[in-house]
Design a protein that fits this description.
single chain; 2 domains; 8 helices; about 35% helix; binds magnesium ion
């Protein structure tokens, strides 16, 4: 028998956790005069005055050392405890191949009560050449049946979900247009079945 509950596809970094905030706080001494809330672009290398390569290397080093210790987002846990049963759940993340296993373990450790599958779109790294398929979140979501709603902080992922026929809700972050949205608004839209730009 098919379960007709909508499937929520959760982005992982900066939705289920605070990766960018944690990375920034860990490195904040290198960026005097800049606050996390000022990161209106992600990747933020241009705003921080470093190269894309330097940024990715620093972020990947942080992932290697600290990812497993990241705290799950308390507001997401609170939502899932109260309303999680109304949906099916999957994690759909863009992460480098090298860190997919760490990310998958982290998701299942903290969210495995609700999230039953982990999917990743490999984030490009020069040293890693992979078979080319499912290269956008939209391509991944197209493989799910029934109603699908992506929750994500990155505009291009939201757009690729919509172009694949899924719904999409922007999760607030300094670098997206939903930055002033309260997470309660995300939950209201999700529960009411409304898409939110
Ligand atoms: Mg994200």
């Amino acid at each position: 028998m098919n379960d007709e509950r909508p499937l929520v596809a959760w982005d992982v970094d900066d939705v289920l956790n605070c990766l960018t905030r944690s990375w920034f706080e860990h490195n904040r001494g290198k960026f005097p005069g800049i606050d996390y809330e000022m990161l209106r672009e992600n990747p933020p290398d241009r705003l921080l005055g470093i190269s894309r390569g330097e940024y990715l290397e620093s972020l990947d080093r942080f992932r290697a050392e600290k990812y497993a210790e990241l705290e799950p987002a308390p507001e997401v846990l609170a939502f899932l405890r109260r309303y999680g049963e109304r949906f099916r759940h999957a994690a759909v993340t863009a992460t480098p191949r090298k860190f997919a296993s760490v990310s998958a373990a982290w998701v299942m450790k903290h969210f495995g009560e609700w999230i039953r599958s982990f999917h990743f779109v490999p984030s490009a790294r020069p040293e890693c050449v992979l078979p080319a398929y499912a290269q956008t979140k939209g391509e991944v979501l197209a493989g799910f049946r029934g109603k699908v709603i992506l929750i994500d902080d990155t505009q291009k992922n939201l757009e690729s979900a919509r172009s694949a026929g899924a719904e999409a809700i922007a999760f607030p972050a300094p670098w997206n247009a939903a930055r002033n949205r309260k997470t309660e608004e995300v939950w209201e839209k999700l529960l009411n079945g409304e898409s939110l730009q």
